[in-house]
Amino acid sequence: MNSSTLRRCLTGALVAGLFPVVFNAVAQEAPAAQEKGPAAADAMLHALTVEYPTPYRAMSAEEVKTVLDRVYTYLERTTPAELIHKSDGTPITNLTTADPDAVFKPGDFRLTSYEWGVTYLGMLAAGAATGDARYTDYTIKRHQLLADLTKLYNPVVQADLKNSHAPHKSFLNPHALDDAGALCHSFLKAKLGGSKVDYTQMIGICGNFVTKKEYRLPDGTFARGGADGNGGFKARPLKNTVWLDDMFMGVPTIAYLGAVNGDSKHFDDAARQVLQFSKRMFNPQLGIYMHGYVEGQADHPEMHWARANGWAVMSMVEVLEVLPKNHKMRDAIVKQLRAHIKGLSTYQTRDGFWHQLIDRPDTYQETSATAIYTYAIARAVNRGYVEAQAYGPMANLAWNATASKVLANGQIEGICVGTGMAFDPAFYSYRPTSVKAAHGYGPALLAGAEIIEMNKKFKFGLNDSGLMYQGLR
Asked: Is 139 inside a domain boundary?
């Protein structure tokens, strides 16, 4: 072996030792230089170690579960499925009478909020993805408590809607989709998944509200408005305002009602709503949705709030999960989903997040929206709606960004608090964030669960230093 060949062999061995991940990747690497002789000083600069703020790789299932376990442990500890006497704080264990003094034992989050409907969905998904029954049991235990309370208190509430008391009165006498829709979605999904809880009465209450009582525009699209009971009209914030949030708060529930009771009118209703929301609120040039739309208003200042876009993309993947394969509007929804995911892909930040106002990089990087996008994009990859080659790496980066915000104690940072609707950027840009904002916990669980499923099915690794699809497992 001459000295030049020996030098090249030693150089190759040294580089392989310094950069084992690059050289062990299954996919093809950059071709070796064809020139002979001593290597130039810049020959291996492309393989220098890069310090990424967000880990740049696909996490293993075990690593993802470690993050999810922290979230689970925190929520199990701080959201007790227990009742106490409001007057003295003593526990209530006998659910045989509708005690007007009964309340849920206080925790960090409410068991009957729409955010917790999403959390119940996330726990079910995490249980299925990890095989850890603790996640599933979290949801079923609280569903069972709500079912028991509904049986006990519903007759009392219906007899006196104004003056009666129940620990979950907002569910028994809902006034908005937020009171019923996401919770109902979780009941329906658990029922389809084989839960032994008797959901009949609860689904009757929330399903009836979502399908028959919530206000709609003349074409059937959910809106916020209607008579105020005093001869006037509700304005939230203006008459006949369509909130993009409601594309998730009610539409998947309708589709899942169709899956449970077999009534095709629910599939038709849900599919129409997805397309009608999109016709009004999706900007095809930008590939993202506006947050609010006022029916009859000439101009609609477009505030592209991140979490609302999350509710939209999540709504589509959830509706498609149960919409029959031969449904006449299914292809249109898949097309709309692809357009939205393609649009979102152009706004992901270099650290894997999306901004509070998606197209305004001067706003902060927001965690709950990033988690929802992670879930929806990974689900779309897993179901074949979009290509794993194009969107799998993005979903992995988004999960790593989300995971970076999960603290050691299981709390999650960077979650925008509850947010109304406005037509100016200041309102959204300065919304506070808090670890006590419930909106990010369910999405984080859903995101981690779907990433586990995606990375079980597809392999992603480094190719020429870039995270790329490397085929089926």
From this structure: yes
Say which residues have a Cβ less than 8 Å from residue 225's Cβ, sequence separation at least 6. Answer: 215, 233, 234, 235, 236, 239, 240, 241
pTM above 0.90, yes or no: yes
End-to-end CA distance of the chain: 41
**Cis status of the peptide bond prior to 237, with omega within 30 of 0:** yes
For residues 402 and 374, the answer to whether their CB atoms sit within 8 Å is: yes
List alpha helices for 79-193, DSSP H. 114-130, 133-159, 169-172, 177-192
Per the structure, how many domains does the chain have? 1
- Nearest of 390, 405, 362, 363 to residue 460 by alpha carbon: 390
Nearest in space to 180 (alpha carbons), one of 148, 202, 196, 163: 202
Tokens 């028991």 belong to residue: 148
Whether 422 is covered by a domain: the verdict is no
Per-residue pLDDT of the chain (473 residues; tens, 9 = 90+): 554 444 444 444 443 444 444 333 445 566 776 777 777 778 788 888 999 999 999 999 999 999 999 999 999 999 999 999 999 999 999 999 999 999 999 999 999 999 999 999 999 999 999 999 999 999 999 999 999 999 999 999 999 999 999 999 999 999 999 999 999 999 999 999 999 999 999 999 999 999 999 999 999 999 998 778 788 888 889 999 999 999 999 999 999 999 999 999 999 999 999 999 999 999 999 999 999 999 999 999 999 999 999 999 999 999 999 999 999 999 999 999 999 999 999 999 999 999 999 999 999 999 999 999 999 999 999 999 999 999 999 999 999 999 999 999 999 999 999 999 999 999 999 999 999 999 999 999 999 999 999 999 999 999 999 999 999 99
Is residue 364 in a domain? no
* Residue 282 resides in a domain: yes
